[in-house]
Amino acid sequence: MKAPLLISLLFFCGLPGFGQTDIQVLGTERPETGQRIVWHNNAFYLLLQVQAEIGGENAVLLKLDSSGNMLWARAVGTPGRDLVNDLAPHQDGVLVLGRMVEPGNPNVIDDVFLHYFESDGTIGWSRYFGRTTGGDDEHADAVFTTESGNIVVVMHEAVGQDRPAYVTLLQDNGSPIWGTQLRHESLDWIFPAHGLEHDGRFWIAGAASLADGTEEAFWVTLNTAGQPLSWYSMTVTDNQPCSFRQIIPLEEGCLLVGTVGVDTPDLLLVWADENGNQVLTRRFHDPEGANLLAASGGYQRADGRVVVAANRFEASGGVEGTGLWLLIEEGGTLAECRRIGQGKEVILQLIPGPAGTIAATGSTFSVGSTAGDAAFLQWPENWWEAPENCLSLSGQLEPAAIAWNSRSGGAFTQPWLAEANHQMVDVPYFPDEKSPLCCPDKDTLYASICAGEAFEGFTTAGMHRYQIDSAGDCGLDRLLVLEVKDTAEVLGLEVEPSDCDQPNGEICVAAVGDSLQFSLSGGPFQAEPKFEALSPGVYTLVAELPNGCTARVDSVVVAADCPVYLPTAFSPNGDGRNDVLQLYTPLSGNAEVLIFQVFDRYGGLVYEAAGPLSAVQWDGRVNGQLVNPGVYTCVGLVQLPLKKVEITQAVTVTR
User: Fold this and answer.
1) What's the confidence (pLDDT) of residue 333?
2) 218 pLDDT above the threshold of 70
3) Which helix (H) or strand (E) holds 246?
4) Average per-residue pLDDT in the chain?
5) 10 Å Cβ neighbour count for 161?
6) Which segment, 14-28, 51-65, 244-258, 376-390, is predicted with the most confidence on average?
7) Does domain 489-560 have CATH number 2.40.10?
8) What is the dihedral of CA 261, 265, 270, 276, to 10 degrees?
9) Do domains 489-560 and 564-653 have the same CATH topology?
10) Separation between Cα atoms, residue 444 and residue 633, nearest integer Å
């Protein structure tokens, strides 16, 4: 058995989330590579290839929460080398696919293993595939789950002149349903790289070789019984080898991402319709002559554009590279390109993450080091809008002409299923810290706002990066993780005034929102959108959702609906009855007369006054003399609580 594996796994420090880093680093002084990543049931799973302390290699599976904090790590292996290939979500956990190199049996070169890991890191079951006769050498390629919950495993034969691919359908517990060899009448070997279910069929893509050694890219679609529905392959007319690494499902059909060329490889993109027919082909070249190699992963955004991952290597060679994130328009035009890292990072898989993010894994080489470390990245989905810094620089690719030959058909299958038995064991490991690769960013800010509000000028949910200072070659950035919560909306109010100063006014609220609570002028909250027994006054209404977001309406007026009376006649004769003309109201409080005027029949002003209602009285005199009997016109404006009352009335003066 191998010596204990010492894995230095980063315990993410600082604030939850991305803290002060852009690229989390996981590893020791021995080589580690992040091979695959999935987001499943609110957690990240990272599949690492790790070099053991003394010989051999192991498969390591990490589980991280949505903020990047490690929940657990598992390392498993055989006495030989165990190479990981693919990772797929399944039920509550994940499937890990790989191959065992010379796993202790002299009759076996390589066999394929498939582990199902539960969400707590325990192995639920394991399956092994391979033949023990004739020096057979089976290599793992891809694993994915079907819409019905079954599992598809894709492998290929790696030795001999005749090297078919193997496709096996398993039940959800790993028990085989059927297995088949995938062959082609014109090909010596078939090397799949990726597979998935889409548009009701299985898609498999990769590279294949003709008898003359020409390497071509292929994609095949199978029905759920494993029979070929379509086979397409293409070669570039100048006989440069080409291959596919990734299939990205689209709303209609799929996008196949690969590489073309040997001396200076370019990026190859092929769009296929839902039947597998080739409809569009694009080739992208690095203007500085660097090598471009496709990475795994990628996805179609809600706006129809596609995010693609690739890597850029200097033409001089070497393992250090720069990860590229590309944004491709629906018509195949390159919209955006960013170089990720400091020139020594490789992206092996990119996926959509939670809350408007993208995530990726790969490897990074420290300066002066020959042993790579695993890398974990999680950035905003709108990464091209973020300011450039030392880990994110605008890249540039240019379209290149491409001419190709393509052909279809010729694929066939034969039954094949070879299960094997092996023993995988847990391998000890000891977590430790590893320095992150970062620009000198400020700490991550976490904020929540209600819809319609803004924080630091941002109004949309997700991650936002903005520059707040400058520090050498690195922009001093701040990362904001913003949550935007639903808020209530008040559609309207219906207000009933009180009778004079009696507490019988009402306010009825029409509002939108689930489980709303209502409060009036700081009073207790209630579920009923109606307030009764209100005295005249000015109120503030608040409607609140359970998440704390509110809608507020200020200056809601409950008026006093109170009449103002003026006698139709009075007799200023000094008999002590009806000697003065005066306004009356049943309001118990004071009312204010803003203006009160009396005019004779010719329009002449005979009386004018203002003040408290009880003080405004006309005794029927002008300049100390009684006016003549007759009809006079009175005009007034009275201020009641929260309401003004206008008066225009004829009054008869008698003796």
Assistant:
1) 95
2) yes
3) strand 242-249
4) 84
5) 7
6) 244-258
7) no
8) 50
9) yes
10) 75
For residues 7 and 429, the answer to whether their CB atoms sit within 8 Å is yes
Q: Read off the pLDDT of residues 262-287 as tens digits, 9 standing for 90 and up.
A: 778 999 999 999 999 999 999 999 99
Assigned CATH for 23-426: 2.120.10.10
For residues 258 and 218, the answer to whether their CB atoms sit within 8 Å is no
Q: How far apart are CA 113 and CA 194, in angstroms?
A: 17
Residue 196: what residue type?
L
For 366-398, b/e burial (b = at least 16 CB within 10 A) is beeeeebbbbbbbbbbbbeebeebbbbeebebe
Domain boundaries, the chain: 23-426, 445-482, 489-560, 564-653
CATH classification code of 564-653: 2.60.40
> Kindly report the CA angle at 592 between 586 and 596, in degrees rounded to 5?
100
pLDDT in tens, 10-24: 322 222 333 334 577
Is residue 193 a contact partner of residue 199, using CB atoms and an 8 Å limit?
Answer: no
* Count of CB atoms situated within 10 Å of the CB of 3: 12
Cα–Cα distance, 373 to 24 (Å, whole number): 10
Q: Residues 351-375: pLDDT tens digits?
A: 999 888 899 998 886 544 456 778 8
pLDDT tens readout for residues 436-490: 555 555 556 788 999 999 998 899 988 776 666 544 334 455 677 889 999 999 9
Q: How far apart are CA 212 and CA 262, in angstroms?
A: 17
Give the max Cα distance, the chain.
Answer: 137
Tokens of 255: 């996008």
Q: For residues 17, 21, 26 and 32, what is the CA-based torsion angle, rounded to 10 degrees? A: 130
User: CA neighbours within 13 Å on the CB side: how many for 630?
Assistant: 11
